[in-house]
Amino acid sequence: MKLLYFAWLKQKTGIGEEDITLPEDVTTLGALVDWLKTRGPGYGEALADLSVVRFAVNQDFAQLDHPLTDADEVALFPPVTGG
Amino acid sequence: MIRVQNEDFDIGAEMTALSGNGDVGALASFVGLVRGQEGDENIGAMTLEHYPGMTEKKLAEVEAEARNRWPLNDCLIIHRYGRLEPGERIVMVITASSHRQAALEACAFLIDWLKTSAPFWKLEERGDSKEWVEARAADDQAAEKWATKK
After folding, report:
1. pLDDT digits (tens, 9 = 90+) for A54-80
2. Which residues of A fall within a CB distance of 8 Å from B48?
3. Positions in chain B whose pLDDT score sits under 70
4. Where in chain B are the domains?
5. Considering only CA atoms, which of B130, B136, B121 is closest in space to residue B81?
């Protein structure tokens, strides 16, 4: 699975993009977030307050109950501020 | 038409390009610029980051929605990324239609919707510090008002 981080989530995790193998018991976006938090302090800090984090699966906005497979592209980022 | 680019654009040339050949009766446009001040604070510059791929996808969706709701002859969204200084252009929306109401409404819809759905983030330079701009509830409300209204 391809994971992408943008804006301050990229700064806090220290990573812009990474390829991971989705653990077998991780089948939703919410479960992925819980698993990511265990991967290090940067992830924990970035994902401490999910009210300021938005998610996309395969480049569409998605909620935490969205199902995942290892072929998906998941992005984590703050609420958008373009325009 | 969607363009996501680092380079600047020429407002007059873009307007002219959408003027049609006698079939367009109204052009409406919006241009967003970098503000040099936010409240009492000076903004040195801002850097726009985006999500290549999703950005184009979301902008194409808002364009398709505008064309579905209003009779548009043409429609253009240009959004820049990278480091921009105060006074520089960030975004331009142009709509072309037979009559002004469709052009004006579609233009307002496009800028309201792209602000809340296109994955861009602004990093402002304030003095020696850099701060990510936070999303505004007013922008969400502006987009929501188009949810049911034509």
Report:
1. 999 999 999 999 999 999 999 999 999
2. 82
3. 148-150
4. 2-144
5. B121
Which positions in chain B touch A59 (Cβ < 8 Å)? Answer: 51, 53-54, 57-58
Helix axes B100-117, B54-69, angle to 10 degrees: 150
ipTM, 2 dp? 0.95
Architecture of the domain made up of B2-144? Alpha-Beta Complex (3.90)
Which candidate from A4, A56, A78 shows the least CB-CB separation from B121? A78
- For residue A8, is it within any domain? yes
Report the alpha-carbon distance of residue B28 to residue B76 in Å, rounded: 11
- Give CA separation, B136 vs B3, B14, B18, B74, B99, in Å: 25, 29, 32, 30, 32
Q: How many domains does chain A have?
A: 1
Residue A71 is part of a domain; what is its CATH number? 3.10.20.30
B19, two tokens: 């003027």
Name the residue of chain B whose CA is nearest to A59's CA: B54
Chain A CA closest to residue B121: A81
Domain that holds residue A54: 2-77
Residues of chain B with C-beta less than 8 angstroms from the C-beta of A4: 51
